[in-house]
Amino acid sequence: MNTKELMDIAVQAANLDEMPADCGIIVEGEGIKKVLMGVDMDTAELMLAKQLGYDCVVSHHPRNTHVDMLEVLNDHIRKLEALGVPRNKSQKLLAERKKQLSYNQHVANSRRSESAAKLLDMPFMCIHTPTDIIGEAMVQAFLDGKFKDKPETTVQDIVEALEEIGEYKNSARKPVIRVGGKDSYAGKIYVLMSGLTGPGPKITKEYFEAGVGTLVLMHIPEGDVKEIEAQGIGNVVVAGHMSSDSLGLNKIAQLWADRGVDTTMMSGIVEIS
Fold first, then answer.
1. Is the pTM of this model over 0.85?
2. DSSP string covering 168-207, please?
3. Which of 16, 77, 159, 222 is most open to solvent, judged by the fewest CB atoms within 10 Å of its CB?
């Protein structure tokens, strides 16, 4: 296997036509049989992989090497359109969010891990959105099956159901309610785990106003929680960051295993066996 083949398997597993802008093959490689994979992989992990004899390092989170990465936020335009929100409205709201995120991206040390990988001659890649899409679909399907035609479902019911999933059950940080109470009616449950990062309170408000009762997210900052609480519309359940990332990463690792590639998990990945 080579790095392109590994990436193609991940992209296809997420039902995508092409590699998203927050993914990348940073250093190409051939003859890959042993992969070291983690949520965040940098110079230290690259050196560890070299020392232990791995053929490739895979990071989930982007390494800031892709200048067009923020375009992945446009996924929210398509998601909201499917819920009835006009494209022009969500596009304008997302433009503000992109500008906010661009300040952090612009000052980032973009080539730090890339330069280390090249010096070590270590194949290196990052797979972000495909894993998030896979995890999002898994959780949505699970909750849909669990609570179909159950209007009395509460937010606490969602939290308890999530803990039946291996990655959440085995995680040190369990799902929590961030907006709403245990007895709050869940309404329409919408799992939102892809789209680069949290879209911010103005966009989450659009989801609620489009009929979503409870958003299930990977993570959310305290400031956003306060704004959403002030809006007084919907509920937010945070499933967990590392555990949610692990859903797609574990799936992709299994697909690679089916092709003869052995993957060792580290750096935040919650294993289920």
1. yes
2. HHS-SS--EEEES-TTSB--SEEEE--SSS---HHHHHHH
3. 222
